[in-house]
Amino acid sequence: MELLKKRILEEGEVIEPNILKVDRFLNHQIDVALYVEIGKELANRFKDKKIDKILTVEASGIALACFCSNALNQQPVVYAKKDDSKIISENTYSHPVHSFTKNKTSNIRVDKKFFSEDENILIIDDFLANGQASLGLASIVNQAKANVVGIGIVVEKGFQQGRSLLEKEGYKVESLAIIDHFENGKVIFR
Ligand code: 5GP
Questions:
Q1: Are 162 and 140 in contact (CB under 8 A)?
Q2: Beta strands 120-128 and 147-157: pairing type?
Q3: In the chain, what's the furthest Cα-to-Cα distance?
Q4: Mind listing the pLDDT tens digit for each residue in 2-31?
Q5: Which pLDDT tens digit goes with each residue over 173-185?
Q6: Pocket residues: Cβ below 6 A from ligand 1
Q7: Cα–Cα distances in Å, from 89 out to 95, 120, 170?
């Protein structure tokens, strides 16, 4: 997606050896016009699939999943929660996910009432690095005996192992921008 790549080149910052900060437009301050286009492009990548619901994880995935849903058929968006809120029921599907950026593990959880057997679920997330968030979300779908239609990612770091782990499990992965590597603090796309 050329518009997204342009914004990453202009406004993204490479911090630490392997982390791209895109908080000027993607995951702190949100550029709504760009989100509209991202939603359309994610929807376009999965337009031939039957999708009943979209699953993501808080917090950055939520708005992206909503714009994608709006560009599809306004399917319900469910987001996995990371904290141990008293509001969420005990009746959950859960999976431990190690966060690449926070270097901490959280048990992501979704209330069982939101998924039925054989529903078709599209997974959406902002970044794909080592694939732990996407694998955790896919595990939740599998626990519900629902189907993973595919995994839509906004920015993939192609030099990390996420895609190969997900494809090994048989999941279709679509990313709007794939980073090949970082070179002297600059992003080089594949
Ligand atoms: P994974 O689970 O694939 O290792 O990492 C994906 C998750 O970690 C995403 O949900 C995203 O929040 C975060 N993440 C991983 N790498 C980056 C990065 O380079 N920049 C930002 N902003 N988030 C990242």
A1: no
A2: parallel
A3: 48
A4: 999 999 999 999 998 899 999 999 999 999
A5: 999 999 999 999 9
A6: 19-22, 27, 60, 99-101, 125-133, 157, 162
A7: 15, 23, 31
* Cα angle 110, 65, 111; round to 5: 10
* 70's tokens: 């709006």
* CA 18 to ligand 1 center in whole angstroms: 10
Q: Is 2 helix (H, G, I), strand (E, B) or coil?
A: helix
Per-residue tokens: 61: 């995935």
> Rounded to whole angstroms, how far apart are CA atoms 114 and 79?
10
* Residues 111 and 80: beta-carbon distance below 8 Å: no
- Going across the sheet that includes 147-157, the strands are 77-80, 53-57, 120-128, 147-157, 173-183, 186-189
Distance CA 68, CA 186 (A): 29
Residue with tokens 């600059």: 186
